[in-house]
Hints:
Oligomer: single chain
Strand content: 5-15%
Amino acid sequence: MKLLPAASSFLFVIFFILLASCKTDIVQEQKASEKVIALELQVYKMSQDRKYDSAIFFGKKMLYHAKKENTVSFIKKAYYRLSHNYLQNKQYDSALYYGDELYKLAASTNDTINMAEGKNRKGFVLKKIDSLELSLENFTDAEKLFLEIGEITEAGKKSLEIANVFNKIENFGAAELSATQGLKLLEDSKEFKTIVGLYIALITSSRELNRIESANDHANRGINLITNYKVSKQKINTINIDNAKEIKDSIDTAIVKKVKSNYVGMLLNGKANVLRDLKKYDEAIDYYKLAAEYYTKDTLEIKRTQFNLAYTLFLKDGYTKLSDSLLSDSYQFYKKEDKSSEVFSTLLKLAVLYKDVDQDRSLAYLNEASKSAEKRNKEESIHEVLREKLEVSPNKEDINKYLVLDNKLRGKQEKLDYFYINNRFNFEDERSQKIQAESEKILAENKAARQKVQSLVLSLILVIFIVLVFFIYQRIKRRHKIEKVKTVHVTEARISTKVHDELANDLYELMTQLETTNPEKEVVLDKLDTIYNQARDISKQIQSIDTEKGYAEELSNLFRTYQSALVNVLLKRYDTDIWKGISSHVKITIYRVLQEFLTNMKKHSDASLVVVSIEKENKQLFIQYIDNGKGFTTEISKNGLRNAENRIHAIEGKLTFDTELHKGCKFSINVPV
């Protein structure tokens, strides 16, 4: 459809006026070039393929061109991606630098979400290099910033990171507080992976605080989350959540995909640890075996579960070659992979394991653990070794070291507790005062901006709709005019054919008889009567139809016209009120189609009985025509009925027929009204 030049100009003027009327205070930055966008896609692809060197290379190119074009949003994206890829590539100084650059640039532009992302990136890097106190500060700041702008899901994720750091530094009370806060933030979300992670953190903190029943409750809640809800509801009174075999059949694979297999394995491992604490060793062993099935790629977690299984076997059966072999295998793996934290934990567990079996061997493991802790400069780990040493072989030197370190760590712990609790609860007070006002202001501004944009969009849509409707109307009007002319031409041609082939031929035949013979008066009168009826039929086919109150009577007259001594026309199930509310063009079409059926019947079928039924139900008009004539073949119907089919299709109806030679005709019409 081509718009007229005048209409196109009109549309452009309306668009310009609307655009000019929608003033805005927002200053948009220059659009990034295709080159910068292409580089960002390249960085993303390389990162997804774990080609971190290439991702860093393209990230630096992206940063260079984004700075050259001064597209601030893409400079931030470049900082974010560089920090991420440097972290994955274990280049921690660079990862920390770009995370800090992201935060500073975001702060200079009052971009809270990227300020939070900058703090978040720094938190991950610092956690990786075991700078846990600084990591905790950055994650806490990120959580606070996300909460300020209502990013509840992201804040919940930071609660998990905070809880994990607190568990790592053995501040289990704060870990429990943070994980509980995270669950409250995400209680109405479908962030299953983070929620399961929070339950895992709670299992760890509750066990360390010797709240085994609470740990078991957290484990059960996490398992309920990953199991099939339908199965759980059906078997709520019969399923035993301590039975790993029953739980295995109930785990929902769709949820597992969202949570990720390793997280499921860690949750099941946590449940097994709780069962071990409850001295349900057989149930714990089954859960460890089930957990191992979900560690598809993470060999480290497999070894951890193997270690836990070995320790449980030792608790159940005492010292055996199997438990000793599994523990030693885990220790050698950690040592080979240079997993210093896991090496320390294994040595400590081995020392505890042999404490009552072989004190010399237990002491040797503790000395190795002490070296590992000193090498990592982990005062908390040294403190733990000294505590175990005092139980195996106490001496004055170790007692003094333990007491000094214990006082130091208590002070450090109190400082961290103060920092976290102060940040947490002071922030709540701030948010109720300052943030509430800022949020209301931001919401009001956003609402006003959205209303302006919506007004512009709706106005444009309205103008475009009006113009489209106008041109569609003009096109339909023109098409109807053409179709009307065509219909007139077709009608004229049909009348001309009928006059020539029927009326003129019969008149010519009668004139010839009168000239060449002397026919009887009755014969001449019969011929004239036939010619009169033919002329009347042609007249009826082109006369106007009353589509108002007289339509029902008009239709009844049509059927009476074709009633004769030789043909009986019956009308069944016909209520004259049926036509109320039906449009004129539908009425005319139905009349003409039935007229065509009756005309064809009279000419060709030799029928003695015609039955027509008309009904309306559920806004559908159902018409059925049946005669006992000689019928016709399908090939004939395709030609002879094409006009009737076209008429019915034009009113969105459906015409079907069932006929065979010498078996009559049956037509069914279905029209929505």
